[in-house]
């Protein structure tokens, strides 16, 4: 039986009009949606939800608004540290010679999109197909592609320049009506051609379009650039400022941190928050849902502080348990990075080597000249993110090493439990086994990436390990919400990860040994160098040099079945409670073969779509499956539902 839901429009009189940016005096106390975290997910979803004027959303963001600094807006002046979350440090990392390592995430309106390196890549088809295999129908590549297209507005580069620089794309994989601006720098450092040609000479083929779901090979890096101004396109601009004047129902309260989700019974009803610098606590209520979008490190902290997490941990801190959910905070994955330094023999430096990305930093005259060109014409090296170059290579394991079969065989022979803590809960182990088996299938699949190689054209190259088998975790160390959680990346504690990583390293060395790179005479510098030959020698130095994070942390509140250690359903609803959803990168089950931003925007577009009205009744929505009311997005405030029974829709009050 279908029931028409009565219209219950929130009175907008409760909240100030045309005051999108609110402060603690003007913030309302009741909204349809309260969103914790104003990063990519938080702002994208708030934007989409408030397209409906009967919905109101408050985004609470721990960080401030940026001030339009050059370091944010101008690629060549990139200064991410302006809005790093301060003083984050890992616990000693057993796989990395017990180093405790400074680590970063964003603390600013716009989140990572405001300070990231603007790399805008999609994962491979197999990445999302694996998500789907973990109990998430709809999250396959084909299910996500429409949202990739919806999220972006691709501006073609100048065609003559594109031909000269080897930029290529396929229009059918690029969106044109979305709000995230996607384009390319309009300059390349001459020596990036050496790298390109060297990679080609060892059979890394140019890719028609890296956004097509298979990008093994070499290609230009799509960049989140507003092509009109050649400035950063980020969530604050594209999903907040853009609608500032027209959305009285969309509020952002900056510099305030959510401290706890409030429950009535098992229903989330609102949150507490405090000024990020400390101060008195306030409460705001959500008539529909509380949405967690605080990023991979802080969303699990919020779950745990709110009583959803491993019972032992919660008891240790005297937190009363709302849901016994050991997996909340587990399954942490990042994409470790390895920087390989080079010295060039000055006697034989090719004429081609200058200028390079380092010249902007080392030669103030050149930097000033090029900045003037950028300011006047939007051209030149300042359209490239500082320290990066314009091309990159993506590798499947098969593409990285002929020995991939041996690596996979060894990985299959290993007992999965050995890669997790000894006291792992059975559901988490089951989920890990499922993930591991999918990753090993990816290792055998030449269309799915495991890592990437980049040379910024100056004195170092970077190798990214994208598909770790190791799993970490995030755990509170205090009941004080302003104290950061403990971060256990557990990088390369699964020894197979280091085998994959050394394979990537050797491939990188092959590129640097090919004639086109040899022409520049790069010499691998200490602590690397030609003396490192065997697997053990290379791996030994790697343990000392790997950075466990590329600020691509994910997966600590994974959407997977609860029996597989999931935290949230395939609709991102947190198990064991109602009206609470995880919308940021925490809900991804596994890493993808790409930096996260493009997928984060697309997944937020998918999460933020309100359900379609059914038939002729504009207020009727498909609401319920099973015996428990399980709402999809509701356009109208709907706290209580009746007449559900076994029906597929409920009455909404
Ligand atoms: C320096 C850096 C470089 C990067 N480079 C790239 C790149 O080149 N390409 C790419 O694709 N990806 C890159 N990333 C990663 C990418 O930006 C993130 O994966 C992405 O932003 C994650 O989106 P999110 O919505 O999950 O979280 P975020 O965008 O991180 O947003 C989370 C927000 O929640 C806020 N928050 C946290 N706790 C609370 C709380 N208690 N209350 C209220 N607010 C809270 C944070 O301040 C933050 O603004 C980079 C990230 C960083 C930090
Ligand atoms: C806000 O919600 C709370 C809790 O549901 C309720 O007690 C309060 O009356 C509401 N306030 C307003 C102004 O609607
Ligand atoms: C790391 O620390 C652990 C525990 O203190 C210790 O057992 C181990 O030997 C250390 N490893 C290294 C490489 O120092
Ligand atoms: C490789 O992955 C793609 C994308 O998921 C899939 O279509 C294809 O069947 C896989 N190939 C093999 C041999 O498994
Ligand atoms: C897409 O980009 C072009 C400029 O490159 C701009 O003119 C157009 O307005 C943009 N469209 C959207 C929807 O942002
Ligand atoms: C582009 O490709 C051509 C042909 O392979 C090569 O000669 C040229 O050096 C390349 N240029 C760049 C910038 O990659
Ligand atoms: C590009 O940036 C300018 C300046 O911020 C802005 O006015 C314009 O709307 C942006 N273009 C798009 C398509 O977002
Ligand atoms: C610095 O750049 C200027 C301007 O491009 C150039 O003339 C000069 O030779 C450069 N200096 C050095 C030391 O390379
Ligand atoms: C965790 O908390 C304990 C007790 O307050 C403290 O001694 C320890 O330094 C904290 N650990 C970290 C890594 O902050």
Automatic annotation (TrEMBL):
| The protein's required cofactors | FAD
> Where's the Glucose-methanol-choline oxidoreductase N-terminal domain?
106-129
Task: Name the positions where FAD binds.
Answer: 108, 116-119, 258
PROSITE patterns for the chain? GMC_OXRED_1
Residues that span the membrane, as ranges: none
Q: Does the keyword Plastid apply?
A: no
Q: Name the chain's protein.
A: GMC oxidoreductase-domain-containing protein
């Amino acid at each position: 039986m279908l029931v028409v839901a009565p219209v219950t429009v929130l009175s907008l009189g409760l909240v100030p009009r045309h005051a999108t940016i609110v402060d603690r005096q003007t913030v309302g106390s009741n909204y349809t949606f309260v969103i914790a975290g104003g990063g990519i997910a938080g702002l994208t979803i708030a934007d989409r939800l408030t397209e409906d004027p009967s919905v109101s959303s408050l985004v609470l963001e721990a960080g401030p608004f940026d001030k339009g600094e050059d370091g944010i807006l101008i690629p060549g002046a990139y200064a991410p540290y302006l809005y790093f979350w301060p003083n984050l440090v890992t616990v000693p990392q057993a796989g990395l010679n017990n180093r405790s390592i400074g680590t970063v995430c964003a603390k600013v309106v716009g989140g990572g999109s405001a300070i990231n390196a603007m790399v805008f890549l999609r994962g491979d088809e197999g990445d999302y197909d694996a998500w789907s295999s973990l109990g998430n129908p709809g999250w396959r590549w084909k299910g996500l592609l429409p949202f990739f297209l919806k999220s972006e507005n691709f501006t073609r580069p100048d065609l003559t320049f594109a031909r000269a620089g080897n930029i290529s794309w396929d229009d059918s994989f690029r969106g044109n009506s979305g709000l995230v601006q996607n384009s390319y720098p309009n300059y390349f450092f001459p020596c990036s051609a050496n790298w390109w040609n060297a990679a080609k000479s060892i059979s890394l083929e140019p890719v028609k379009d890296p956004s097509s779901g298979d990008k093994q090979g070499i290609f230009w890096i799509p960049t989140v650039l507003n092509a009109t101004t050649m400035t950063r396109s980020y969530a604050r601009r594209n999903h907040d400022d853009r609608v500032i004047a027209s959305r009285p129902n969309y509020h952002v309260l900056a510099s305030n941190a959510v401290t706890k989700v409030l429950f009535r019974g098992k229903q989330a009803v609102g949150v507490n928050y405090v000024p990020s610098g400390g101060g008195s606590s306030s409460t705001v209520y959500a008539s529909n849902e509380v949405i967690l979008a605080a990023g991979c490190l802080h969303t699990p902290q919020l779950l745990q502080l709110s009583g959803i997490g491993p019972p032992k941990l919660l008891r240790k801190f005297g937190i009363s348990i709302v849901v016994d959910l050991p997996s909340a905070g587990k399954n942490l994955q990042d994409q470790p990075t390895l920087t390989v330094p080079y010295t060039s023999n000055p006697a034989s430096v090719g004429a081609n080597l200058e200028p390079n990305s380092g010249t902007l930093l080392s030669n103030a005259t050149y930097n000033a000249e090029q900045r003037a060109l950028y300011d006047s014409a939007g051209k030149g090296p300042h359209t490239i993110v500082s320290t990066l170059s314009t091309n990159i290579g993506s590798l499947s394991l098969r593409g990285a090493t002929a020995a991939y079969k041996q690596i996979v065989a060894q990985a299959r022979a290993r007992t999965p439990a050995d890669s997790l803590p000894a006291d792992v809960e059975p559901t988490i182990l089951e989920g890990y086994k499922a993930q591991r088996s999918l990753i090993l299938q990816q290792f055998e699949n030449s269309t799915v990436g495991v890592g990437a190689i980049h040379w910024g054209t100056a004195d170092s190259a970077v190798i990214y390990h994208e598909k770790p088998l190791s799993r970490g975790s995030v755990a509170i160390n205090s009941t004080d919400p302003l104290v950061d959680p403990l971060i256990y990346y557990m990088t390369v504690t699964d020894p197979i990860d280091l085998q994959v990583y050394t394979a990537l390293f050797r491939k990188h060395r092959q590129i640097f040994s090919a004639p086109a790179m040899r022409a520049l005479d790069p010499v691998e510098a200490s602590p690397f160098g030609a003396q490192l030959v065997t697997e053990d020698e290379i791996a030994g130095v790697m343990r000392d040099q790997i950075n466990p994070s590329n600020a691509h942390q994910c997966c600590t509140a994974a959407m997977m079945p609860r029996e597989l250690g999931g935290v949230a359903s395939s609709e991102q609803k947190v198990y064991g409670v109602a009206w609470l959803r995880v919308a940021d990168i925490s809900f991804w089950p596994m890493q993808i073969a790409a930096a996260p931003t493009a997928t984060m925007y697309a997944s937020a577009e998918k999460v933020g779509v309100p359900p379609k009205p059914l038939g002729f009744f504009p207020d009727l929505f498909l609401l319920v499956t099973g015996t428990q009311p399980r709402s999809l997005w509701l356009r109208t405030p709907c706290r209580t539902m009746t007449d559900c029974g076994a029906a597929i829709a409920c009455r909404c009050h």
